[in-house]
Amino acid sequence: MLKQLKTWAKAIKRDVHALWLAAHDPRTPWYAKALALGIAAYALSPIDLIPDFIPVLGYVDDAILLPLAIMLAVRLVPAEVMAEHRATASLAVARPVSRTAAVFIVVVWVAASATLAWWFWPRRP
């Protein structure tokens, strides 16, 4: 069972890279490009939206939500385009890293923190 899990994890990593490539392919429909780019950027980001140190929720996005989103995006990309990019991703030595998504996630956390601080900051009447 552990071998199957490792094989599945490798396939997911390959599919994330393939989605990144498919998002830049002109043969991919716009809605699939948008979803593939967003999911691939989040998956390739070195920072999680929900950090892993948060009990349960930290791993739910990595273990359940992200693989489901990846599978949805793979289904939206035309099969021949996905097959071509899967082959390219399998041969790739290095995987892309999305620093833009990391910056976006940091901005979301800063904005959420600022909003909470403003909301709970004591005000004088």
From TrEMBL:
Entry's localization field: Endomembrane system
Highest taxon, organism lineage: Bacteria
Residues of the DUF1232 domain: 32-68
Segments traversing the membrane: 30-50, 56-77, 97-121
Alphabetical list of InterPro entries matching this protein: DUF1232 (IPR010652)
Cellular component per GO, a single term: endomembrane system
Keywords tagged on the record: Membrane, Transmembrane, Transmembrane helix
Pfam families reported in the protein's UniProt record: DUF1232
Main subcellular localisation: membrane
Record membrane topology: Multi-pass membrane protein
Name of the protein in question: DUF1232 domain-containing protein
